[in-house]
Amino acid sequence: MTEWFDRAPSRQHTGSLKWAKYQGRDILPLWVADMDFQPPPQIVSALERWALDGVPGYCVATSGLRDVMVAALKERYAWEIDGDALVWLPGLVPALNVVTRISGELNSGAISNVPIYPPFLTAPGNAGRTLVRNPLAIEEGRYALDLSEIREACSAFMFCNPQNPTGRVFTRPELEQVAELCLERDLLLCSDEIHCDLLLDDVQHLPIASLSAEIADRTITLMAPSKTYNVPGLCCAFAVIPNRALRRKFVRSGRGLLAEVSAPGFVACEVAYRDCEEWRQALLAYLRVNRQLVVDAVSAMPGVRYLPGEATYLAWLDCRGAGMEYPHAFFERAGVGLSDGKDFGQPGFVRLNFGCRKALLEQALARMVAAMKEVG
Fold it and tell me: Residue 296's domain spans which residues?
């Protein structure tokens, strides 16, 4: 199925956020985290059938969708949940903001590892809470947790696994550290696991809520088909909240903030988790090749370091050794649009999205290498 990804359609003049940013400029967009590939053909066909035969009214999740999700979580992660634990969402960002609103009192702390997906940095302040930054360490050539320096009084841990932007998939011992901290300090735990089906190495994703009944009782796990199956514009995600009282509190606090899930989103979600495993495996194989292209190119960029994570189509590049103050602007001038590390809480870095055609990625990387050689 390699040809499916090699023939990714042009997204120019389609209203694509990713491509509209640099419309009319010779800058290749490798920034925001959506891929340039069409969704699996099964999803496309299901959406076509829905458009022809369906009525675009308000919708709720069907029992069939619930059963598909319960089965998928059990099969993929050996995580057994009750279907009633599922709460359907239009996306993860509004959910992050609801979580901070139900955690502790005003001005209480919410921990996040940095670097981190930008909404983690803003959600606490939106709710009158205080962001507590916990920097990731580097151990044995990879990013790692270091929870020993957390001294502040906090009410929540806003966690991300697989980690965005580094791509780390945390191990059971690492997850147990997080769980222990949350239990000891009585913290609400929100775990963004949206990239969990994009594992590129031989590792296992372990939902942190599956560690024990005790940690599940205080955990809100956030997932979605959007990253893996490339359907973010359909606005369908879900939370898994086993604790009934916590689930009710989350739903109640989200009233007026969380929009309804779209009918096409429900359609795509069910088909994605039920019928698209062959496509997903082909995608992972393609992304592994693309990741290696990034590794090889970075080796030719003096002063730039890349510690490949085990998951996601995102590469977190450390440009501090290259002596450039604004690497995002530097590469933009070279014709490549990347995400600015300061938005993730770590200036001096850029995030590169390699979820695109191999030919496009090669062109972008060649521009970056050439630009680095000019200043080298």
Answer: 2-41+277-375
For residue 50, being part of any structural domain is answered with: no
pTM of the complete model: 0.97
Burial class, 251, CB count within 10 angstroms (exposed 0-12 / middle 13-18 / buried 19+)? middle
Residues in the chain: 376
Are residues 306 and 225 part of one domain? no
Q: Same structural domain for residues 113 and 195? A: yes
pLDDT per residue of the chain (376 residues) written in tens, 0 to 9:
678 899 878 898 889 999 999 999 999 999 999 999 999 999 999 999 999 987 889 999 999 999 999 999 999 999 999 999 999 999 999 999 999 999 999 999 999 999 999 999 999 999 999 999 999 999 999 999 999 989 888 999 999 999 999 999 999 999 999 999 999 999 999 999 999 999 999 999 999 999 999 999 999 999 999 999 999 999 999 999 999 999 999 999 999 989 999 999 999 999 999 999 999 999 999 999 999 999 999 999 999 999 999 999 999 999 999 998 899 999 999 999 999 999 999 999 999 999 999 999 999 999 999 999 988 6
- Is there a single domain that holds both residue 140 and residue 176? yes
Residue 51 inside a domain? The answer is no
Taking Cα atoms as reference points, which of 286, 311, 285, 307 lies closest to residue 298? 307
CATH of the domain at 338: 3.90.1150.10
Proportion of the chain in helix, strand, coil states, percent, rounded to 5 = 45, 15, 40
For residue 308, give the nearest of 167, 193, 137 by alpha carbon. 167
User: Cα(304)–Cα(341) distance, rounded to whole angstroms?
Assistant: 13
